[in-house]
TrEMBL record:
The keyword Flavoprotein applies. One of its GO terms (cellular component) is cytosol. Pfam families: MTHFR. Keywords: FAD, Flavoprotein, Oxidoreductase. This is Methylenetetrahydrofolate reductase. The lineage of its organism: Bacteria, Bacillati, Actinomycetota, Actinomycetes, Micrococcales.
Length: 311
């Protein structure tokens, strides 16, 4: 299920994927092909992103509902403080719980580029405030309406959060999120396994006990790696940029990227990571390649062998 406690040695590796709500019907059709492929790997959950300003709320809720109704997948709904008032967020949280969502990734959201569009009056300031709001909404509902505790995930940063004064401050913030009721953390993308390892060491030293799951993106496209570097403020490894830049065609770029991703994920697992969260960009091929090479593809719900059917 959704990660709740640190997994001990030998525990199975948790597997999860990030999807974003499709922007049009063509994208939706291709996303559903991807969802069916990913479903075949029996992940612990799939997460659905939320536009910081709440603009894609309708398509996000629709995707979450379809995942609940039409698949065996457990969705984790991202939710952000930015762009909605606390009252609006209470309503959205209730709605998600009504639909059967049992996992929420509590985020602040990226601040709007134009400060004029800054946080609205009555909006929550930090992810920590959203965690507390989710717990209040949950407690305010009858046990019947909300069977089972809602699992709350939060963001963690192997490379410093761009607005944060230091990595130590980041860990204090992560500890505060745990105190407010976070059950697990997923990391921002990172390009050096040492950064993940050091984050975990700092966090454990500070008293963070919740699982910290590395967020890993298939590094198969130079354009995407560069863009993500800009969006997240995390500098891609120059060596990786070089190798992707030298790749002659898409197939070579994919081979280089998958291999780099596998190395990164393996190093994180060697450092004790309890799972892998793959940023899929709504595409399954590279994600499944990576998992295959990591030997993490589960033989889940595979069609029974023909001789068993006949017997
Ligand atoms: P916070 O934990 O609130 O931190 C934001 C900043 O405030 C940090 O610099 C922190 O140090 C500081 N801070 C926090 N609490 C305090 C405090 N009590 N006192 C002083 N300073 C404090 N964005 C989206 O818009 N939609 C998504 O779906 C989405 N999904 C994401 C998924 C993952 C796994 C990750 C890692 C990020 C995702 N983001 C998403 C991006 C995220 O919203 C940004 O990174 C955002 O800038 C910070 O979010 P946060 O939840 O870490 O915020």
């Amino acid at each position: 299920g959704l990660p709740q406690a640190p997994s001990g040695a030998g525990a199975p590796i948790a597997l999860s994927y990030e999807l974003f709500p499709p922007r049009n019907e063509k994208a939706a059709a291709s996303l559903w092909d991807t969802i069916r492929e990913l479903e075949g790997t029996n992940p612990d959950y799939v997460s659905v992103t939320y536009g910081a300003n709440g603009s894609n709320r309708g398509t996000a809720v629709e995707l979450l509902n379809r995942l609940l109704r039409e698949t065996t997948l457990r969705p984790l709904a991202h939710l952000t403080c930015v762009g909605n008032t606390a009252d609006e967020l209470s309503g959205i949280i209730s709605e998600l719980l009504d639909h059967g969502v049992r996992g929420i990734l509590a985020l602040r959201g990226d601040l709007p580029r134009d400060p004029g569009d800054g946080p609205r009056q009555g909006s929550l300031r930090h992810a920590q405030d959203l965690i507390e709001l989710i717990r209040r909404v949950e407690q305010g509902r009858s046990a019947l309406l909300c069977a089972g505790k809602v699992a709350i995930g939060v963001a963690a940063y192997p490379a410093k959060h761009p607005e944060s004064p230091s990595v130590e401050h980041d860990v204090e913030v992560l500890l505060a999120k745990q105190r407010s009721g976070a059950d697990f953390a997923i990391t921002q993308v990172f390009f050096h396994a040492d950064q993940y390892r050091e984050l975990v060491v700092r966090a454990r030293r500070a008293g963070v006990r919740i699982p910290i799951i590395p967020g890993v993106m298939p590094l198969t496209s130079l354009r995407r790696v560069r863009r993500l570097g800009v969006l997240t403020g995390v500098d891609p490894a120059p060596k990786l940029l070089d190798a992707l830049g030298r790749a002659g065609d898409a197939a070579e770029s994919r081979r280089v990227g998958v291999s780099a991703t596998v190395d990164l994920a393996r190093a994180a697992l060697d450092a004790g990571a309890p799972g892998i969260h793959l940023y899929t960009f709504n595409e399954h091929a590279a994600a499944l390649d990576v998992l295959d090479k990591l030997q993490l593809l589960r033989p889940a719900r595979r069609a029974p062998a023909p001789e068993l059917v006949q017997a």
